[in-house]
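Protocol step 6 of 9: fold each sequence in the batch and record its structure tokens directly after the sequence line. For illustration, a two-sequence batch is reproduced in full.

Sequence one:
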Amino acid sequence: MVFMIIILLIVIGAFMGMVYLLEKQISLDKYHPATILIAISLIGSIFAAPLLFYKFQIPTEPKYWTIGIISMLVYGVGSLFEFKAYKSVDASTLSLIGKLNIVIAAIIGIILFKDTYGLSGYIGLMLIIIGSVVVLYEKKAFYMSKGVSFVILMAIGFAVATVLDKIVLEGFSPFTYVFINNFGIGILFLLIYPQARKELWDLVKSYYKLVIPCALLTIVSWAGFLYVLQNYQISYAYTIYEGTSLIAVVVFGIIFLRERLKLWQKLLGLLILLVGIILLNGIH
């Protein structure tokens, strides 16, 4: 049973790594980031719809819906910065720097929820910071491009959304929320950016071979991870899942997208990040 769970975590982690590469390819064209976000979210909600029949639960208290909507907006804004970043930043570089969201979420947790970590946890957080930014080191200085700034804003958005989701999931079933979240993001940003209606069908028609697999892999990966959490320790599950997704996007990016600029820095950052994630999650 444990072996099968580990295999499942490795597979869905690799799926999430592939999502980064698909998003990178879609983002290189003319389409507005909001259009890409809406397309992936709404198609994802179609794939997530069957989850409504598994442990369906929605809250009656308005606060959970309010926080959920705020989380969707924050995550959506983070995604807009992500798609903007892809126009000038490698998928592998984005994945490495994007892991700063772990540190940001941890800091928010310490401040708001009084979360505590042992010595190994704090060392892990420091290593995650180092591993995330080592790819920025150039000519004895850390270089910040416009694209990197977008990645950092993405990381902040994703971290805040993660913290908000922690509260939201007190009221929602995780599997119900997978659908609600995707559908909600798609509808909210369609209302915020109505111009996307003009581009949406053209995007799906032109890039359906990328958009549909991207949405499907995102849902399968997310739902699979939530399923594992019901039966496995979160520290082990999170470490294997995050570690595999990180390895996948860096390795696949180098091989398939030929992202070989700063190759050794990427590999070093990957190694440091993996050690940091392991220490943070208490794996010994």
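Sequence two, same batch, same settings:
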Amino acid sequence: GKPYQCPKPDCYKSFKYINSMKRHLQFHDGNYPFPCSYPKCAKAFKNKYELKCHNRLHTGERPYKCQESGCGKAFRLPCEYTKHRRAHTGERPFKCTWDGCNAAYITCGGLASHMLSHSNDQHFCCEFCGKTFKHKMSYHSHIRRHTER
């Protein structure tokens, strides 16, 4: 079931996770006055625009359509479309600041991941053999070698 019951009087919602209930309580406190009206969705938002964007998860609406000939992709949010367009234009606005490195990326996440390559930090350690990795993808790829035998 759903063990977390909203403590507010006259509200009978219950939640599977405590964080979902906490998010719901913010709505009662007035911090997020725009609640999602879809059943079983406890999210609420600060403004109508955020709610409208969220509702697209429920409706499947993707109003931002790629204009590139033959592409046909469409997106829920303008930022998703902007990021996608860079694949067509070749624009890579996130540039590495390391001396002598000319790497550039479509997303800030790509750059952040790249910046790890300039550090000696090893963030992921294989529990099977102890080998360490800077990048999550390399780590997961390595783990599969152990588990797919």
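Proceed to step 7 once all outputs are recorded. Observation for sequence two: The mean pLDDT is 86.
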